[in-house]
Amino acid sequence: xxxxxxxxxxxxxxxxxxxxxxxxxxxxxxxxxxxxxxxxxxxxxxxxxxxxxxxxxxxxxxxxxxxxxxxxxxxxxxxxxxxxxxxxxxxxxxxxxxxxxxxxxxxxxxxxxxxxxxxxxxxxxxxxxxxxxxxxxxxxxxxxxxxxx
Length: 149
Fold this sequence. Notes:
Number of domains: 1
Shape: elongated
Helix content: over 70%
Low-confidence stretches: none
């Protein structure tokens, strides 16, 4: 096939439907949201990330003055880092609280992205406006959480 034939076929390809455009916008917004959370989770191994809930529970126990079980992770993690158990627990809770705020922003983005699938968005112009609004809201939330995108 010649270049001219390829250009002709491309020119003859049907324009995407609004449903297809909305789906692409949704997928793009979801990828953007995943990029936000991966800025945090991407710096940790999967194994370590799976212990975050345990670490947070143990850290809150330390801050509440409760005894930790013998199998607790935090004492060894604090020792490995060269800080006191209390200092380590405070850091874990601060990071957990910050990550929770990031997750709330990601959930808001997902909900906004789902709105892009609405059949009420009937023109490319309305879709562009909805995407622009969602990006601005997401950017504002990310910057507010100290994330650069």
